[in-house]
Amino acid sequence: MSKKPTKSNSKKPANKIVIMFGLDKDRKPRGARFTGENEALLAKAAAAMGFRLAVPVTKKHFEVANKLPAGKIHATGSGLVPVVDQPLYDQIISLVGGEPGAISTPLPKSSAQLAPGHLVIAQATVEDGWWPAIIIKRSSDAVTLKWRDFPSEPEIVRPVSALALLNTD
């Protein structure tokens, strides 16, 4: 008799959606959704344009994100993040929060710059390896993290010294 295969508990990320949005130099609202793209590359593009990034996690977030046109990471100018209707842009702002306009870079250059909202790489377990996580809280020597690709997982606490930063070059 053959043995039934056991399910692995290792985490496998889904094809993740990231939205990029902001006001262009003429104050026109722009927005796009990117599926399965390199997040570090998206972060650089967003920082260069003064746009923001967000990751949908709830059903409502996905409903709004799916109304956005697909972004083209290899396009330039208006092809990267097209103009969207003001009501749709307002919906995004109301879900994400914060003020519209230019933001600081989402990728810290050193552990001293780590703050809530920053994306880092953290070890889940020795067996599960390292995964992208978002800083929720920071004390002087530890951070509370939420797994970026697994938002339903509980928050974890890790020492600042145990985190990996994403390449900002």
Spell out the key features of this protein.
disordered N terminus; 169 residues; 2 domains; 17% helix; SH3 type barrels; three-stranded antiparallel β-sheet; alpha+beta; four-stranded antiparallel β-sheet
Structure commentary:
It is a single chain. The chain is α+β, with helices and mostly antiparallel strands. The chain has helices at residues 39-49, 59-65, 86-96, and strands at 17-23, 29-35, 52-54, 119-125, 129-138, 142-147, 156-159. The chain has 2 domains: 17-96, no CATH class; 111-162, SH3 type barrels. Strands 4-5-6-7 form a 4-stranded antiparallel β-sheet, with no helix packed on it. Strands 2-1-3 form a 3-stranded antiparallel β-sheet, sandwiched between helices. 21% of the residues are buried. Helices cover 17% and strands 26% of the residues.
Elements, N to C (H/E): EEHEHHEEEE
Shape: globular
Low-confidence stretches: 1-8, 100-105
Multimeric status of the protein? single chain
Order of strands, widest sheet: 4-5-6-7
Number of strands: 7
Helix and strand content put the structural class at alpha+beta
Distance between the termini: 55 Å
Number of helices: 3
Rg of Cα set? 18 Å
When the domains are counted, the total is 2
Instruction: Describe the largest sheet.
Output: 4 strands, antiparallel
* Average pLDDT for all residues: 80
Helix content estimate: 10-25%
Strand-residue fraction?
25-35%
